[in-house]
């Protein structure tokens, strides 16, 4: 009782609106999710709004999927959560969606707080929206898409994991998934250029250069936690002789808003990037080694921004596509003697393999860099999620479930016999790092950039002059 | 009674069935929203059609990984559906009745074959029923409506078998025949209003997901969905 | 042994007699429409008690038997009586194919008069 009374005097943490001010954000950050989830237990459902939301946004595609599901359970073993949890029937994708969104639609939004918390725990804690189940359903029912939709419904009612609420707020306040400002970004670029210009003559990171061939956009983590990634990208572009630039505004291509189901936030974020395209008019945009960012900015983004063709203002490609192009055209030349000798395997990120069609690209790259490349099984479009997708890596509330889920990827990697995993995706990279931390199977993992940088032949005009 | 169920009631059932399924298709297509679904259905129609054709092809034929992974279940499912649709449509007695009523007719298949097909439908139905009762994965998903729908689907075949072979079974031929016709009409009427609407909506869904993959997810890179 | 043979002969003669009698009786009242154009039957031949229709129901011969000339039924009992002579398996000369002709003739009348069977199995009963 005393606690409740106390909480009532405090500013609310659980709200139905996205966080758009720094004060609200700081409050959430300071809370660490403790009072947040406590408050959520008594946070009321706005049934009228929920009903209206379902009536206007839940249309024939999803309603049909929910209705015609034959309850056949063929999707069960397509889900890594089901497999990792010893074939627990409660982890069957169909069960998960029918018991949440299915009920919600059936009851036309007439549900209580506990129901919505269960929806949240299922939509974020038991599904990474990897869309694998949808490939195996005879009816073509994509439960990943439905969970994405359910996340939006939950977000609009305030039932969203703490870190997702923060992530969405970050995008509203900083136009980035973290508190990285335009100044931070530009300064980091300058710093990285300065750090490396002595080793690679003529190295610059051109900011806001109009009409460049490539506009490069990144993940805020690279600014905040490993700026070396930006330096590596710059060096490789420089070696390849690319005419490239980064936009001061519009550099962030990730979208925690997408993971959070904050559709207005998604629109706001991608429009920031598209404005940069329209302003700088690059021939094309290259996004960094990130999976969900590619999905958000290139695949889904145009729809949020209301672009009817579903295409970004400038043609956009993933970093792996640029790498392959540079290797095939000889812009980047690798020293064959430096090819990785040990067995190496490759993680297929759902967001640009299953949902982006780039599996052949990464495999061709592997043929340039690895002597003993070993496929995981299953692979390509049929690969399992790393276990940390859809924002799951970052949510404390579901850490335990996430770690259980990692077992599937662990066993896939172990079965290849390789101790080295190439992962051109931030989320997969994190999940693989964490699975090593949890299960200690003795593996290494890496983005492509450091591997390429180890092998690339540096042209003479870039090499620093020997000191006399 | 026979005159009523085979006359006006049959006409009503067919009308409800046809109007119903057309309404469901229209409702489905009208409910597609390029922005909400995030698929440029009309702008990228060409890519969409390619994806849709691929999606239908790999699933109308058993050329998908689900069939490879669950060969027995999928074999039973394919056989069940083929027989369930083909047997009543191409059964001589049905075609004769339709020809005499509406003067349209089409090819028929021998009674001996439809007889076996009927048994396949019944056997598959029993297989599905047992699976629902026994397999914990299916059990957790099962609702009362799943049993009802299964009963609606196989009742015309059980009663049809009894009527065709003129088995007495306590009621006699004519009664069983009337029950058979009623069961068929219940199924026709139920199709637009229940899960049986997958008769048409499954095609809609397969086309939609095919377009989705063909237009954006992988389609732009020429792969689309890899079944 | 000898006794057994005698029994056999008696049995054969008896059966033959029954058969002849049966045929003779059948000529008197046709009971089934065993037309040999239906080579591959899906159902047993339809039962047709001729006497029931003629004697009991007093249906005029011309209701069923017909040969049309200038729109008029000119059939009399000196003319062709086998239906399938004109109504062949497939339609020809605008004549209904045999099965449809039978169905139209029998079922049509049963429906119109509200008498007689309509369902498949009542005319085409299976052997029990």
Summarize the structure.
Chain A has 468 residues and is α/β, with parallel strands linked by helices. Chain A has helices at 2-9, 22-31, 34-40, 47-57, 60-68, 80-84, 93-106, 113-125, 132-136, 143-157, 162-174, 182-196, 220-224, 228-239, 256-260, 263-280, 291-304, 319-329, 359-369, 399-416, 426-439, 448-455, and strands at residues 214-217, 244-245, 284-287, 316-318, 340-346, 370-374, 420-422, 444-446. Chain C has one domain (31-123): Cytochrome C3.
Please, could you describe this protein's structure?
The complex is a heterotrimer of chains A (468), B (227) and C (128). Chain A is an alpha/beta fold. Chain A has four domains: 2-42, no CATH class; 47-160, no CATH class; 175-325, Rossmann fold; 334-455, Rossmann fold (3-Layer(aba) Sandwich), CATH 3.40.50. Chain A contains 22 helices and eight strands. A four-stranded parallel sheet of chain A has the order 2-1-3-4. Chain B starts with a helix and ends in a 12-residue tail after the last helix. Chain B is globular, with a radius of gyration of 20 Å. Chain B has helices spanning 2-6, 8-31, 34-38, 45-60, 65-69, 71-90, 92-102, 111-134, 136-141, 144-164, 173-193, 198-215. The mean pLDDT of chain B is 95. With 227 residues, chain B is mainly α. Chain C has one domain (31-123): Cytochrome C3 (Alpha-Beta Complex), CATH 3.90.10. Chain C has helices spanning 2-28, 50-56, 83-86, 98-113, 120-123, and strands at 68-69, 72-73. Chain C is mainly alpha-helical and 128 residues long. Chain C starts with a helix and ends in a 5-residue tail after the last helix. In chain C, a hairpin with a 2-residue loop joins strand 1 (68-69) and strand 2 (72-73). Chain C contains five helices and two strands; from the N terminus they run H-H-E-E-H-H-H. The chains are: A alpha/beta (468), B mainly alpha (227), C mainly alpha (128). The interface between A and B is large, with 52 and 61 residues.
């Amino acid at each position: 009782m005393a606690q409740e009374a106390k909480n009532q005097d405090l500013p609310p943490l659980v709200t139905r609106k996205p966080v758009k001010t720094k004060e609200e954000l700081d409050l959430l950050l300071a809370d660490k999710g403790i009072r947040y989830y406590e408050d959520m237990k008594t946070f009321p459902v706005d049934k009228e709004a929920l009903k209206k939301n379902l009536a206007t946004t839940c249309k024939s595609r999803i309603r049909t999927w929910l209705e015609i599901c034959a309850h056949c359970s063929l999707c069960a073993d397509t889900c890594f959560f089901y497999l990792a949890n010893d074939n627990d029937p409660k982890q069957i994708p169909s069960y998960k969606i029918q018991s949440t969104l299915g009920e919600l639609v059936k009851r036309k939004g007439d549900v209580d707080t506990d129901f919505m918390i269960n929806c949240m725990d299922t939509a974020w804690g038991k599904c990474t929206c990897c869309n694998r189940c949808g490939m195996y359903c005879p009816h073509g029912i994509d439960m990943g898409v439905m969970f994405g939709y359910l996340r939006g419904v939950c977000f609009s009612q305030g039932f969203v994991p703490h870190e997702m609420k923060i992530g969405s707020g970050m995008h509203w306040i900083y136009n980035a998934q973290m508190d990285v400002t335009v100044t931070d970004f530009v300064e980091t670029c300058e710093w990285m250029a300065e750090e490396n210009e002595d080793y690679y003559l003529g190295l610059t990171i051109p900011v806001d250069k109009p009409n460049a061939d490539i506009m490069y956009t990144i993940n805020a983590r690279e600014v905040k936690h490993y700026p070396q990634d930006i330096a590596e990208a710059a060096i490789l572009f420089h070696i390849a002789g690319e005419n490239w630039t980064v936009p001061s505004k519009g550099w962030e291509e990730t979208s925690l808003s997408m993971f959070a189901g904050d559709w207005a936030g998604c629109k706001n974020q991608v429009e920031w990037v598209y404005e940069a395209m329209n302003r700088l008019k690059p021939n094309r945009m290259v996004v960094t080694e990130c999976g969900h960012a590619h999905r958000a900015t290139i695949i889904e983004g145009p729809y949020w921004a209301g672009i009817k063709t579903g295409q970004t203002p400038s043609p956009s490609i993933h970093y792996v596509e640029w790498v392959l192009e540079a290797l095939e055209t000889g812009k980047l030349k690798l020293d064959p003697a430096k090819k990785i000798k040990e067995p190496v395997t490759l993680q297929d990120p759902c967001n640009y393999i299953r949902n982006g069609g780039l599996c052949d690209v990464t495999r061709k790259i592997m043929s340039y860099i690895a002597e003993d490349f070993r496929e995981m099984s299953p692979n390509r479009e049929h690969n399992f999620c790393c276990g940390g997708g859809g924002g799951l890596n970052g949510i404390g509330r579901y850490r335990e479930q996430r770690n259980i889920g990692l077992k599937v990827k662990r066993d896939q990697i172990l079965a290849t016999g390789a101790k080295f995993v190439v992962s051109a995706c931030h989320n997969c990279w994190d999940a693989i790092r964490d699975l090593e931390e949890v299960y200690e199977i003795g593996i290494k993992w890496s983005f492509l950039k450091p591997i390429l940088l180890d092998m690339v032949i540096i042209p003479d005009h870039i090499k620093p002059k020997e000191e006399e | 009674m026979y005159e009523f169920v085979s006359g006006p009631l049959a006409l009503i059932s067919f009308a409800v069935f046809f109007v119903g399924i057309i309404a469901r298709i229209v409702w489905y297509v009208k409910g597609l929203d390029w922005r909400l679904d995030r698929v440029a259905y009309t702008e990228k129609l060409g890519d969409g059609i390619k994806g849709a054709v691929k999606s239908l092809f790999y699933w109308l034929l058993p050329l998908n990984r689900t069939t490879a992974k669950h060969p027995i279940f999928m074999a039973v499912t394919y056989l069940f559906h083929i027989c369930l649709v083909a047997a009543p449509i191409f059964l001589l007695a049905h075609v004769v009745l339709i020809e005499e009523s509406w003067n349209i007719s089409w090819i028929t298949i021998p009674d001996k074959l439809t007889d076996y097909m009927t048994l396949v439908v019944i056997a598959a139905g029993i297989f599905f029923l047992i699976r629902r009762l026994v397999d914990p994965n299916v059990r957790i998903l099962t609702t009362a409506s799943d049993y009802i729908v299964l009963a609606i689907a196989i009742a015309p075949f059980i009663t049809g078998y009894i009527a065709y072979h003129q088995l007495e079974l306590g009621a006699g031929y004519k009664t069983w025949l009337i029950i058979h016709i009623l069961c068929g009409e219940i199924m026709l009427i139920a199709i637009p209003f229940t899960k049986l609407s997958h008769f048409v909506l499954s095609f809609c869904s397969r086309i939609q997901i095919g377009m989705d993959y063909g237009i954006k997810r992988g389609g732009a890179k020429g792969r689309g969905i890899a079944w | 042994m000898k006794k057994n043979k005698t029994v056999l002969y008696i049995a054969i003669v008896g059966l033959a007699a029954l058969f002849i009698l049966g045929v003779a009786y059948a000529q008197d009242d046709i009971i089934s429409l065993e037309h040999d154009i239906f080579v591959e039957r899906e159902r047993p031949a339809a039962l047709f008690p001729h006497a029931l229709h003629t004697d009991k129901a007093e249906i005029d011969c011309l209701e069923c038997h017909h040969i049309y000339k200038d729109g008029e039924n000119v059939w009399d009992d000196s003319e062709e009586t086998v239906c399938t002579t004109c109504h062949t398996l497939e339609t020809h000369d605008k004549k209904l194919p045999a099965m449809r002709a039978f169905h139209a003739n029998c079922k049509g009348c049963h429906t119109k008069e509200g008498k007689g069977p309509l369902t498949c199995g009542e005319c085409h009963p299976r052997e029990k």
